[in-house]
Specification:
400 residues, mainly beta, 7-stranded antiparallel sheet, 8-stranded mixed sheet, elongated
Length: 400
């Protein structure tokens, strides 16, 4: 156990200021968790998150990469914690609690996190990932319990580490955790169910000092590991690492209806005839924004009635977009660029679109079915390809 871990409790009073905001519970939670946003300014010698090298006692341990990264996570798509190591290095970020928390309390609430292990050349360590750690005192002895992805199954039922994809891991009472030191009846470096530790670590003064995301030294001193971590959920709080900025969207359309004017363009197909428009959906990422991977666009059309896909034709990047019935009497289409495209900080992602409409041929006429609304949403790779990011742009196409 290094001294940074041991010093978590000592730093707790100085770094106890709360950044918590109420937020929906993470995956699988039974009750709302608090959301604590962790930005670059919060990781360093002043806390409330500390790197390996922020403890002078670790002067002989070479630190790896420990930074808040723009690499988009799979939940809020706003960035993540980057932990990477080269040969002989160690990388971690530690957060102290204001006071000791009983392990039973930790175990009774959601205990989870998201991980991403990046392929590298040369391939580096195989089958291992970043650990979720709990530094604690058990029967008066200091140790660290480590949840290791390689020993567990993710939320999608995949055992161990799957490279180049986000995985969500949730600890249960039966999940194996490794103890760094011999405590109670557990040998050092042994794996035991969390419930066994809960039962054993109940002496006066026992408890958890904080939470750590860790990439430790590997068995082969020449191995490397490049990982991302986010949405650490422990003791009722979700720790959300992210960039300061977010992407924004914009839709621009112009009239291409023969003999039409701008009003006809805005109508995009009133019931008494046809109309056409072309334009662009553009998402712009600021210099301090996230890095979105394998992006696409979700197009949602609505006009207050049940639209029929035969009455609306849409193309994107010169190719027809398949429209299907969506919620709330909408039509939904997805644009998936080939080859894949990333939206990076200080960059843009644009999709040319065209719309032609003869509404009313197959749809049921309704009094409020006059305007056509288009919402475009940025999609990106998360747990799955083309997940919704919440970055949207809207336009309403009014009748003549």
């Amino acid at each position: 156990m290094n001294r940074l871990t041991a010093s978590v409790s000592a730093a707790a009073v100085a770094t106890g200021a709360s950044l918590a905001l109420l937020a929906p519970a993470a995956v699988g939670a039974a009750a709302p968790n608090a959301l604590e946003q962790v930005r670059a300014v919060h990781l360093g010698p002043n806390g409330p998150w500390f790197r390996l090298e922020d403890d002078p006692g670790n002067v002989n341990i070479p630190p790896g990469t420990e930074e808040v990264s723009p690499f988009a996570d799979p939940v809020r798509f706003n960035g993540s914690l980057h932990l990477a190591i080269g040969p002989g290095q160690k990388s971690q970020a530690a957060h102290p609690f204001p006071q000791l928390v009983p392990l039973s309390t930790i175990a009774s609430s959601e205990l989870s996190y998201d991980t991403y292990v990046k392929s590298t050349r040369p391939p580096g360590a195989i089958g291992v990932g970043p650990n979720l750690q709990l530094p604690l005192r058990c029967q008066g002895v200091f140790t660290t319990l480590s949840f290791r992805p390689e020993d567990n199954t993710d939320a999608q039922g995949r055992p161990g580490v799957v490279r180049d994809t986000w995985q969500h891991f949730t600890s249960s009472a039966s999940s194996p955790w490794r103890t760094s030191q011999a405590v109670a009846t557990f040998p050092a470096q042994s794996d035991n169910p969390l419930s066994d530790y809960v039962a054993a670590c109940d002496a006066p003064g026992d408890g958890v000092f904080g939470v750590i995301a860790n990439v430790g030294r590997l068995g082969d001193v020449d191995d490397t590991l490049d990982t991302y971590v986010d949405n650490l959920t422990v003791n009722g709080t979700v720790y959300d690492f992210g960039a300061d900025g977010l992407a924004t969207g914009r839709i621009t359309l112009r009239d291409t209806t023969p003999g039409g004017d701008c009003r006809a363009c805005r109508s995009a197909g009133v019931d008494d005839g046809s109309a056409a428009g072309t334009g662009t959906v553009t998402f712009t990422d600021p210099a301090n924004g996230p890095e979105y991977h394998a992006v696409g666009v979700r197009l949602v059309f609505s006009d207050g009635r049940a639209l029929d896909p035969r009455d609306l034709k849409v193309t994107a990047n010169g190719k027809s977009v398949k429209l299907t019935a969506g919620p709330g009497r909408t039509l939904v289409g997805v644009v998936d660029p080939v080859p894949s495209v990333n939206l990076v900080p200080n960059g843009t992602f644009s999709t040319p679109i065209s719309i032609s409409s003869k509404r009313g041929q197959h749809s049921t006429r309704e009094k409020n079915g006059d305007s056509l609304t288009l919402q475009a949403e940025l999609l990106a790779r998360g747990y799955d390809p083309l997940q919704r990011t919440g970055v949207t742009a809207d336009t309403t196409l009014h009748p003549r």
